């Protein structure tokens, strides 16, 4: 390596020779930078071939006035490695990729037009292009009869992109569509005659759509668009100062699982919405400073109710009478407060409904002091919700939905379940809905609607797509149509619960597996008590059963599947009979696991005993080895509940004489001096044994 001193000597000699010769070289001049810091490498083009050849990182491609029909030209795919043609159903679509710092600029939206012939292709697609700018042009599919399934601009994995001063038109299904993008701005752009959405955002964040004109969105045949603005699983999305008119859609704004969505200072008129104007799931949407008059609509809100800039829930009247005014997006209150801090597995004691809501979160026990927890008295009732919950809009008021938490326990402090009561005012809403929750425990409290004249159409505890749930010692009462309502759930144990005064049934179980009702007191509900629809693996115990007829006094269980009798048979397996030794033994094993009686387990086992758990697989060679193990740790609460809720609909006897109970327990017949006895040989909560 040369020393610094030697390098300086060579440099001085070179400069001296240049001066003596009278032709000193000028200092190198870097290209000017654009406002975003990109190098100004301007290429003027006037054809599709020239456009494709000019695309490169850091390039500014200026398109002369005229129409550019994007279709494969001779040699186009060979001259530029940043462009490719992607096959679609009816032709090829242009995709520009890995071109950071690219600018494509026309002479104006009324002068420069990019169009595509394939109706199933996006007009322009960009993938992995950061610091991208598209401005001063119009893009859409070539005008001809029929519909499209392709959009106009599609951006995937692009960061810090800008669409400015453009016209984006149908026939194209979506004006701007994104997938996993961040830092997008769509400004001063007209989006019109698209059939599905004006803007559709998926898994994208930090998006601003401002000062745009949106009109004639909806199918040409009168079929409505879905949502004019749609965001799914996004964050920090702002629609600001836009003018929207003459549209036909299901909703104005649809937000699915997106945080901090704001719709501010927009003028919406002359449009038809065939569903709720604002439809939000999980998180609320902020709406303020907008004019929302002279439109026809089915209803204002679907799902979570919107709030104003201060975070206050908006009534229908407030939305109807809202006036157009400027709102600073930075002044909008964040609608998602954090949950209360809790050490993993720790406890939080609460005394009122606000404390209860603030404490909701994963891996914690919320201890409820005695008292009445009226959800309608929450300070944010119907508003933004929190980290572990949100308020869903129902016909007559907001409903509490606890979503996405794992390891949550709600436990009453008092040993008297009647001393702790959770109530809800809306008669058309469930008292509490749990959505996408796992390892959930509800212990020792009472829940139901507030006492009032009339009937309800909402239930008490609603479980949706939940796994490993235990209801222990709870009282669930009407006025509520069902005590427990479950859909797409597995491993749910309802133990020692009282379910009463419900107008439809005690429990409605749909598309579920692994339900257990044990030692429950069901009374004052219509016949039949329990409905099972398209479900399997349901265990009942300590409930009288008498010829398919529900007897309120006898707590009789009836199985029902619409107009067909629900037969407890799985595939071609032989069903358990209530008096079969296999069923009796299986119930005994389940009770042993539920109670954690390991000595009794050793008495029922045949060795070697195999146990398969999510944490690993174990083989106990003898009784001493089993009893010396750390069984309370190995067979934790979640494992024990899963075993207790195992399906016991059928069994299969293999050639070795082993009996497999629904693939989760294996029994072997042990020959003794008194005859044959069933013994447990294996148990699994991870996969079938057969």
The fraction of residues in strands falls at 35-45%
Rg, please? 33 Å
Helix content: 10-25%
Which structural class is indicated by helix and strand composition?
Answer: mainly beta
Summarize, please.
With 690 residues, the protein is mainly beta.
Task: Chart the SSEs and their pairings.
Elements: H1 4-21, E1 41-45, H2 48-54, E2 59-63, E3 66-70, H3 76-79, E4 83-88, E5 91-97, E6 103-105, E7 112-116, E8 124-127, E9 133-135, E10 138-141, E11 153-156, E12 162-164, E13 167-179, E14 182-187, E15 190-202, E16 205-210, E17 213-215, E18 225-232, E19 235-240, E20 243-245, E21 248-256, E22 259-264, E23 267-269, E24 272-281, E25 285-288, E26 296-304, H4 316-321, E27 346-350, H5 353-359, E28 364-368, E29 371-374, E30 389-394, E31 397-403, E32 408-412, E33 420-424, E34 432-435, E35 438-443, E36 446-449, E37 461-464, E38 467-472, E39 475-487, E40 490-495, E41 498-510, E42 513-518, E43 521-523, E44 530-533, E45 536-541, E46 574-575, H6 581-595, H7 598-604, E47 605-613, E48 616-620, H8 623-627, H9 631-634, H10 637-644, E49 650-653, E50 659-661, E51 665-672, E52 675-684
Parallel strand pairs: 1-2, 2-6, 3-7, 5-8, 6-9, 7-10, 8-11, 9-12, 10-13, 11-13, 12-14, 13-15, 14-16, 15-17, 15-18, 16-19, 17-20, 18-21, 19-22, 20-23, 21-24, 22-25, 24-26, 27-28, 28-32, 29-33, 31-34, 32-35, 33-36, 34-37, 35-38, 36-39, 37-39, 38-40, 39-41, 40-42, 41-43, 41-44, 42-45, 47-52
Antiparallel strand pairs: 4-5, 26-30, 30-31, 46-49, 47-48, 49-50, 50-51, 51-52
Helix pairs in contact: 6-10
């Amino acid at each position: 390596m040369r020393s610094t001193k030697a390098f300086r000597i060579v440099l001085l000699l070179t400069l001296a020779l240049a001066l003596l010769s009278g032709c000193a070289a000028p200092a190198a001049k870097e290209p000017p930078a654009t406002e975003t810091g990109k190098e100004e490498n301007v290429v003027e083009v006037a054809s599709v071939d020239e456009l494709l050849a000019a695309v490169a990182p850091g390039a500014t491609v200026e398109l002369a006035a005229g129409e550019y029909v994007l279709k494969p030209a001779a040699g186009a795919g060979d001259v530029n490695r940043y462009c490719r043609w992607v096959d679609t159903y009816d032709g090829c679509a242009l995709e520009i990729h890995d071109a950071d710092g690219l600018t494509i600029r026309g002479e104006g939206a009324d002068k420069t037009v990019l169009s595509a012939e394939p109706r199933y292709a996006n007009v322009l697609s960009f993938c992995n292009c950061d610091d991208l700018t598209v401005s001063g042009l119009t893009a859409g599919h070539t005008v001809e009869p029929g519909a499209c399934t392709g959009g106009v601009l599609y951006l995937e994995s692009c960061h810090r992109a800008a669409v400015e001063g453009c016209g984006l038109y149908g026939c194209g299904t979506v004006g701007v569509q994104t997938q996993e993008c961040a830092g997008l701005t769509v400004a001063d752009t007209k989006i019109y005659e698209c059939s599905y959405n004006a803007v559709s955002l998926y898994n994208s964040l930090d998006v601003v759509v401002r000062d745009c004109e949106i009109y004639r969105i909806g199918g040409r045949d009168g079929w409505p668009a879905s949502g004019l603005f749609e965001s799914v699983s996004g964050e920090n999305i702002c629609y600001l100062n836009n003018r929207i008119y003459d549209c036909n859609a299901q909703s104005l704004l649809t937000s699915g699982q997106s945080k901090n969505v704001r719709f501010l200072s927009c003028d919406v008129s002359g449009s038809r919405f065939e569903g709720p104007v604002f439809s939000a799931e999980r998180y609320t949407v902020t709406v303020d400073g907008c004019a929302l008059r002279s439109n026809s609509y089915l209803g204002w809100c679907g799902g979570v109710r919107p709030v104003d800039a201060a975070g206050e829930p908006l009534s229908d009247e407030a939305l109807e009478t809202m006036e157009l005014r400027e709102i600073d997006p930075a002044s909008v209150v964040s609608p998602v407060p954090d949950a209360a801090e809790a050490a993993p597995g720790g406890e939080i004691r609460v005394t009122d409904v606000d404390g209860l809501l603030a404490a909701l979160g994963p891996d914690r026990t919320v201890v409820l002091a005695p008292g009445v927890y009226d959800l309608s008295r929450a300070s944010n009732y119907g508003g933004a919700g929190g980290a572990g919950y949100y308020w869903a809009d129902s016909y007559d008021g907001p409903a509490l939905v606890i979503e996405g938490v794992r390891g949550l326990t709600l436990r009453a402090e008092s040993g008297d379940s009647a001393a702790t009561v959770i109530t809800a005012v809306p008669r058309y809403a469930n008292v509490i809905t749990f959505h996408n929750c796992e390892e959930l425990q509800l212990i020792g409290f009472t829940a139901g609607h507030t006492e009032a004249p009339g009937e309800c159409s909402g239930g008490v505890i609603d479980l949706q797509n939940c796994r490993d749930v235990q209801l222990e010692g709870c009282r669930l009462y009407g006025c509520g149509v069902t005590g427990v309502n479950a859909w797409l759930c597995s491993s749910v144990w309802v133990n020692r619960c009282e379910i009463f005064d419900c107008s439809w049934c005690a429990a409605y179980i749909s598309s579920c597996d692994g339900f257990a009702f044990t030692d429950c007191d069901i009374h004052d509900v219509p016949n039949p008590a329990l409905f099972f629809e398209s479900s399997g693996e349901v265990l009942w115990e300590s409930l009288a059963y008498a010829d398919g007829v529900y007897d309120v006094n006898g707590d009789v269980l009836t199985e029902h599947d619409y107009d067909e009798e629900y037969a407890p048979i799985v595939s071609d397996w032989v069903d358990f009979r209530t008096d079969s030794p296999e069923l009796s033994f299986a119930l005994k094993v389940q009770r042993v696991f539920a109670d954690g009686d390991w000595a009794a387990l050793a008495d029922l086992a045949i060795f070697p005993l195999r146990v398969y758990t999510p944490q690993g697989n174990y083989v106990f060679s003898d009784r001493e080895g089993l009893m010396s193990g750390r069984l309370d740790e190995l067979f934790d609460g979640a494992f024990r509940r899963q075993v207790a809720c195992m399906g016991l609909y059928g069994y299969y006897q293999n050639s070795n004489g082993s009996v497999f109970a629904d693939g989760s327990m294996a029994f072997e017949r042990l020959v003794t001096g008194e005859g044959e006895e069933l013994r447990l040989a294996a148990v699994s909560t991870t996969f079938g044994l057969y």
